[in-house]
Amino acid sequence: xxxxxxxxxxxxxxxxxxxxxxxxxxxxxxxxxxxxxxxxxxxxxxxxxxxxxxxxxxxxxxxxxxxxxxxxxxxxxxxxxxxxxxxxxxxxxxxxxxxxxxxxxxxxxxxxxxxxxxxxxxxxxxxxxxxxxxxxxxxxxxxxxxxxxxxxxxxxxxxxxxxxxxxxxxxxxxxxxxxxxxxxxxxxxxxxxxxxxxxxxxxxxxxxxx
Length: 210
Description:
This protein has helices at residues 13-31, 59-62, 65-78, 107-112, 117-139, 142-195, and strands spanning 2-3, 6-7, 51-53, 81-84, 102-105. By secondary structure, it is mainly alpha-helical. β1 (2-3) and β2 form a beta hairpin. α3 (65-78) packs antiparallel against α5. The longest helix has 54 residues, at 142-195.
């Protein structure tokens, strides 16, 4: 919680310490517009159990306002904070001096593990955001809208397949239930027939001769 320039942190001791470490990084990232000097720095991010990193991308990608907004949405969905820091590899190719990497930190990452399905899904979503930001810069979002349309069509197709599969399963279950009911009725009739006295059995009809 915050009040003006004051932030109140709650939770256990380790949780408060972790939040106190994350807070300057997140605030620095949201305060940055286009200045690399203002980016936070995460030491040994690749070795941390609560952090994920992505390869550096060009400055025109990480400075994208749309990307920053989508990264905030990703953070809320995953309970982990996504931002860019000022790290660069020791060897930088010409023209890539302003490239920077995305870092994602959070207790949820440490809880599930950096190699877990949760972490891999988070990385995949973050990588997709980077691709989307690149497309917006190149063609104004045409490619992004095409992918979104294809994704929605695929989701609709999968939903229809699930409905059809559920319908078939329901029909199969109903058929099995009807067959079981018929089998029970036949078994019950056989038991009743076995318990009857032969004298009580109806005699076959005598054919009438002219």
